[in-house]
Amino acid sequence: MKLIVILFSILSIKGCCNSPKTVAVSQSESVPQLELNGPYTIISIFNEDVAIYNLEVDFNAAEKRITGFSGCNRFFGNYTLSDSTITFGPQGSTKMYCDDDANTIETKLYEAFLKINRLNFNHSSLEFMSGNSQVLKMIKKPQEMISFFEYSTVSRGTYKLITINKKQISIISKRDATPIIKRCSELEWGKLIDAVKTLNIENISNLKAPSEKRLFDGALIANLTIQYNGETYESASFDHGNPPAEIERIVKEILSISENIE
After folding, report:
1. What is the pLDDT of residues 64-122, one digit of tens each?
2. Entry pTM
């Protein structure tokens, strides 16, 4: 993936004096104080339901940063919020090849941002408006309670267990061995959480392994376990090096993180 930084006119529109675009926030006395923090899911663009595309915008109030997924690429940058106005600065983006459907919805999202001139805040939803017309709507995304990830590999003569939670990474390289432990960084944990966003965690036990070399000692036997909302979900076994497609990204992130401390 080639990472490029581009100036998004979708979020930062500059006039003749190069001043950033300011979006007015409309609030009534009965509506709580506006707080932009955490992840939001974009559910409609120009009143068209787009929930199936998993479009997201994530506000980091402490750092005044914004990240998101636009249907094809991820974008990121800064924003400022002062009283009743919000200003988005220059945005960066990944540049990936995507199918026509993803490209189309991404284009619509960018067009919607171009038309925004005010923002209505209504409890858990944000309505981005052009005059009196709604062009974009988001809802607050519930925080997913993932306690830890566990990845194990085993064969007749080998054993490894990798456990990662928000605070630390633990690796046991053989049975009854003392684990190697390292602090889990915010970046590392964020990559894992990002990788699991589109996964139905409760269904991982039903995922079919794409190959069966482990059945005749042709590959290590691997398992993925995730503790989510207090419940522990474990995948069916699969060949190490060839996980089901639905969990491939998570497995790669776990292995990448663990390689840095061995």
Report:
1. 887 888 888 887 877 777 665 666 666 667 888 888 888 898 888 878 877 777 777 76
2. 0.50
Residue at 146: amino acid letter: I
Q: Which amino acid is at 14?
A: K
Helix H, strand E, coil C: the string for 111-142 is HHHHHCCEEEEECCEEEEEECCEEEEEEEECC
In order of their start, the domains of the chain are 2-140 (2.40.128.270), 146-259 (3.30.1560.10)
What pLDDT, in 10s, does the model give residues 123-163? Answer: 557 887 788 889 889 877 655 578 999 999 999 889 999 99
